[in-house]
């Protein structure tokens, strides 16, 4: 399935979670110990914006994370641009900007962040979240492919053991070093 279609499906599952985050949720902790909800929103929006550049074979800048004060309006708009950029002819071919990785893998990283971090935000704000089945399949394959390299690059933490009866998505979260049943 085309990467832009998968990103669009991930976006469809993300938008309700974002829409249901209230102002009183912004200081809540998330499964990402370094981020509260507000900081994770800024991080995720920054990823979305910078991965638009990578789709266009431009260099991305992850040296700092700006604040996105109008995140409620920016998230739908910027994720729509992300889908559009990755849908352009050739976006998923060749090398993606200064990441010096195959564009298909880089686009997959955008899909991964849009799935895993939305799950983090849902957990932090007491919402349920299940990814689109085809998005899950793609993200699961990417997590398996990246494995030790992702841990080395601090993209993932060391895997944790999934609890008995864990769903496939909970097992995937455990593979990324997250407690799949985390709660604030």
Task: Provide a descriptive summary of the structure in words.
It is built from six helices and no strands. It starts with a helix and ends in a 9-residue tail after the last helix. It is mainly alpha-helical and 184 residues long. α1 (3-19) runs antiparallel to α3, α2 runs parallel beside α3 and α4 crosses α5. The chain has helices spanning 3-19, 37-55, 71-86, 103-124, 133-152, 168-175. It has a single domain, classed as dinb family like domain (Four Helix Bundle (Hemerythrin (Met), subunit A), Up-down Bundle). The model has no long low-confidence stretch (mean pLDDT 94). The protein is 55% helix and 0% strand. It is globular and about 40 Å long.
Compile the SSE list and pairings:
Layout: H1 3-19, H2 37-55, H3 71-86, H4 103-124, H5 133-152, H6 168-175
Task: Give the key terms.
184 residues, mainly alpha, Four Helix Bundle (Hemerythrin (Met), subunit A)
Number of helices: 6
Q: Into how many domains do the coordinates divide?
A: 1
CATH topology: Four Helix Bundle (Hemerythrin (Met), subunit A)
Order of helices and strands: HHHHHH
Structural class of the secondary structure composition?
A: mainly alpha
Average predicted confidence as pLDDT: 94
Determine Rg (CA atoms, Å): 15 Å
- State the share of residues found in helices, binned by percent: 55-70%
DSSP, total strands:
0
CATH top level label: Mainly Alpha
Instruction: Provide the CATH architecture.
Output: Up-down Bundle
Label the overall shape: globular
**Relevant CATH superfamily:** dinb family like domain
């Amino acid at each position: 399935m085309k990467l832009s279609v998968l990103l669009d499906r991930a976006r469809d599952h993300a938008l309700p979670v974002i829409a249901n985050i209230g102002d009183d949720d912004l200081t809540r902790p998330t499964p990402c110990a370094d981020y509260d909800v507000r900081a994770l929103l800024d991080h995720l929006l920054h990823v979305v914006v910078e991965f638009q550049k990578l789709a266009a074979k431009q260099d991305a800048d992850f040296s700092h994370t700006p604040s996105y004060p109008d995140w409620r309006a920016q998230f739908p708009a910027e994720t729509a641009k992300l889908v559009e950029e990755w849908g352009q002819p050739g976006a998923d071919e060749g090398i993606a900007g200064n990441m010096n990785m195959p564009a298909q893998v880089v686009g997959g990283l955008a899909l991964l962040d849009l799935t895993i971090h939305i799950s983090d935000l849902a957990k932090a704000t007491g919402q349920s979240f299940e990814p689109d089945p085809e998005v899950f399949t793609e993200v699961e394959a990417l997590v398996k492919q990246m494995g030790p390299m992702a841990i080395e690059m601090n993209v993932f933490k060391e895997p944790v053991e999934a609890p008995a009866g864990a769903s496939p998505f909970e097992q995937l979260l455990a593979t990324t070093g997250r407690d799949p049943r985390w709660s604030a």
